[in-house]
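Suppose a classmate hands you a notebook page containing two proteins, each written out with its sequence and a corresponding row of structure tokens. How would you begin to make sense of it? This section walks through that situation. The first entry is reproduced here exactly as it would appear on such a page.
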Amino acid sequence: RNMTKHTGGGYISLLTTFILFINTCYASTALYLPLSEANDYSANESVPVWANKLTSVHTALPVDFARLRMCSPSPISYHSLTLGQILNGDKYQSSRIEIHTNVTVPYDSAMDCTQDYNSDQIAELKELINNNYRVQILLDDLPVATLSLYKGAPVYDIGYPLGKIISGEYQVYNYISFIVKYNLTSEGKFNIVGFEAFPVSNGVFLPQDDSATPVPIHWHFSVDWVASTIPWDNRWDLYFVEIGSNLHWLSFGFSLAVATSLAALIIVIFVRIRKTNSFIYQASNLEDDNGEEIGWKIVHGDVFRAPPHFMILSVAIGFGAQVLSTASIIFVLGAIGFLSPAVSGSLSTASAVICAIMGVVGGYVSARIYGRLGGTRRRRNAILTAIVGPTIFLTLYMVACIVFWSAKSTAGIPAGPFFGLIGLWLGVMAPLVFLGAYLANRRPVTQNPVRPNQIPRMIPQPTWYSHPVLLSGLFAILPFSTAFNEIYFLVESMWSQHLYIVFGIVFAVFGLFVMITAEVAVLACYFQLTNEDYRWWWRTLYVPGFSVLYIFIYTIFYLVYRLQMQLASGVIVYLSLTGLLLVVVFLLMAAVSFYSCLIFVNSIYARANVD
């Protein structure tokens, strides 16, 4: 009775609390904190302009702005960057574009220069235009934007195009009209709240043949200042893409209904278990029960038998708990507005630092599981927990970096920041993993409710429709369908020129995703036990594995039909970075699935009177 009461009441109270929190999340889907003070500029004051990089969704290889040879100053000065900005491939450098507060610069009066391009440089310009590269420039830390249509709705894309192809001819946008939007403070100072570009061409076409004669290109700009009513705190709003809000609601409603239905089903299962939670295994008793009700009872002497290779299992679940705690903190910080787009690279920096700090969680969880399964090599368990996961992450990232370095892309991490990541791993995360393992090993080992038999029980051959692989594959559809809509928008944000930073919605869906993953893991475990199959430890990874497989298939579909990568190097970068994200999803799902099944199995056997 207490088990049913606590379980049913726990699910109901959890769902009620979650629904109340979702209302807050949806009411503040675009919440973010500026996290910096507005820069007040006086009239005719110079505003810092930084050229960043050239980006393309068709290559995934950002390149240096200097390769454009747009009359760069001599010498070129570079802005200091954070770790997150370096990981994002940013490279802030000075340019000859000069903008002064409230000073309108007419056509041909701004930076006015002519640059000669030889045949190799012309070929490079053609390649950049053919791959739809866009120029990234920042004014007062605000990226330049251009107005375009996205699925029929007006949106602002970051950067402006370098040129376009007209009837097989390459046209260069050599004239850029900048529009700077501002508002005035009570002291009469200027706050910049918008930075737009309108690129055009003055009839500049690149030659079709490889001419040995240098081709001159005349670059020039104009600047206009426009008063705006946009508050400085909301100046990033125009970069957000909020398309398909109805889809968000429909997807969330469907996922909430699924989570509620699964919770009700689990409560029914607990009610049925409560009716027979005190049993004695005798032949006369077993004849009175049907197969579904006695299956999980029969394997009571084997259900807590240690699985093979449990060292690897404990390390995987420990690092998964570390990833899960990192993701949870990131989503909470994003939902309350601390991961502001105004701080470039804040998401990457926060993820790296928080993951390192959460090493204490990974070490603790891994050691507790390993000790419970009877492991004695605790030092090796801690070392593997500190090494295996980060090695996989760095290996996938290094594959992308090798491509970046070979293509001379700005996304290739320099030696200094790379060794900084190694230092964060070995100097911060690894010691915290050892600390977590030390704290876990000081506690007494958790005892199983039922002692395993000395001789393992024979496992009957399952029917085709009750095979664990088939059931896990079907159950995995539910977590995937929960996150499918948000996966699309997140992938679109990663590989397009749009910003999708609605952490309230993402956090709400993440909560449902974790809840449904836990519920389907419990159901899959229960059906397996009723089939007298006690090998549930490793089977908890089946549902996460199939869910990640479905996500991978979708990302391949997105690569082929949406991105249409034109370079093999871009495909390698896409697959390596996508693989990195899939490993993250698998690990956090594995931690949720494993602990959900462990709690479930403990609950049903701890209250059973086994004779």
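The notebook's second entry, a different protein, reads as follows.
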Amino acid sequence: MSTTAEAVEDYNNCVASSGGATDALLVCVTSRLSQLEEQVAATSQSTTTQAAYSRDVFLVLSAALVFYMQAGFAMVCAGAVRRKNLQNTMLKNLLDACGSALSFWSVGYAFAFGDGAKNANAFIGTTNFFLMDVDDLAFWVFQYAFSAAAVTIVAGTLAERCKMKAYFLYSVFLSGWVYPIVVHSIWSGEGFLSPSKPGGAFLDVGVIDFAGSGVVHLTGGVTALVATHILGSRRGRFYDEVTGEPLEVPMEIRGHSISLQMIGTMILWFAWYGFNAGSALLFDVEEAHLVAATAAVTTTLAAGTGGIAALGINMLAQGIIHGESYYDIPPAMNGALSGLVAITAGCGVVDPWASVVIGFFAGVFYLFGSWILIQFRLDDAVNAIPVHMFNGIWGMLAVGLFATPRQLEQAYGNGKHPGLLYAIFERQEMDANLLCAQLVGCLFIMAWTVALMFPFFWVLSTQGLFRSLAKDEVIGLDKSFHGGIENTSGMSARQMLFYKSVVDEALRTGELAGEALSPADIDDLRKSAQMHMPPPPPPGSMMGSNHSGVVLPPKSAIKQTAGNNMQGQEQSLGTAAGSSV
């Protein structure tokens, strides 16, 4: 736009060119004003185009970060399983991404973000199937990455015993139907729990889930709980495979590589910045950059606090229970991930100090959840349920406690109903609207997920499509389904003893876990036993050795050791915290 001096000069030029004639002067001035308007419009259009370009570029980069979480989950799962199931676990993580891409493209996005205005209950989208009439492709990529993250949460829980076909069907069903309805209800502008619902939000505030503690993590965590309840535990984890009796001390099945689990944990933490800070790009507000910065800071603090809290409390519990303690790595990794999950719902609407409190209790709830799973004999190979379900709930409720009116106004344009603790201590009033809305959101997600996933997994189980055969689990899924080499290296003495007792009983009776064995199956088991079992001790010797050269006591001594020494070790909170996801 011209400066004042330039405007005066333009007017003087018009006066000079008009020769003093009024009509000519008006024509000249009008023409000049039209030129200025065109220049302003062009500048405005250029600014809008530049803003849209920046938003799309950063949204795609954030989507790439969120998708990189698939690598983190894959590393965590790979390290948490035994080597004989490594290929199987890795392929399932890949199928998550593949199945989610097709289902979210075909129907999932339409159900989640399609125009549902014609539905009185605003329950589901009804347009944009197969990306028809979708112009914002950057938004689609970002939301697809979120759907894939929700699906892959379950991969580690079902590791080492789930059939490949069942897992692929589950990933398509969750990302194409179950997850999109949760998304539409909370994140679309028309959802019945959406903060921006036309005609007024639920309880005048709606459900605040900034980046997905509830929508993504609680959905995935509840699905994992239902799945492991129906699928059952890994063989030998809680029950004696020969007698069927519950084990007095559950057998710990640790993964083969703590290094892979640590790499996966750090990848997830890194990618979480795209998950949380990247979500600020979806808010059409002038201060989106400030919201993103807040989200990044709170994400960092919650993760760090969660890891330290879980590590320290686990050590303290060991000292109280056993009189000595040690630095157990899995609780530290899972504590950090728990902090990340818990802060995801409120990362853009809470103060940094509140994120420290949220992260601390996330570590506590993780340890408590791990202990609860053991008490109910629910086998979660990577502890996804304590990390994602328990802390998904905590993260949602924490928003109802700690959200500030300033940051709610900044991100959502509505700061009338802050978190309960803020309302009590700052406003001296009892405003529980947001907390009640968050609780209703949690109940809806859990009810919807259980209502659909329980019958889905039950049908798969009754049709024999869900669980792998006992023989395949004993030998290893890599050997049975992927042409891999069976590998039982890294087994503890107690695991080796269990493996031998199962194989011996199967060879004697011709069946395994109630499943009749074919001659080929028996031959596979016999070869497996010959390859991996320790040779019998020489006559008169009281000791034997395993194939790695490590000296092992006789069978009776191993039983006594398992009964005496491993009991204290495996009942610690660190053991309950097992592996990492």
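A careful reader of the second entry would note: Residues 534-578 have pLDDT under 50 and may be disordered.
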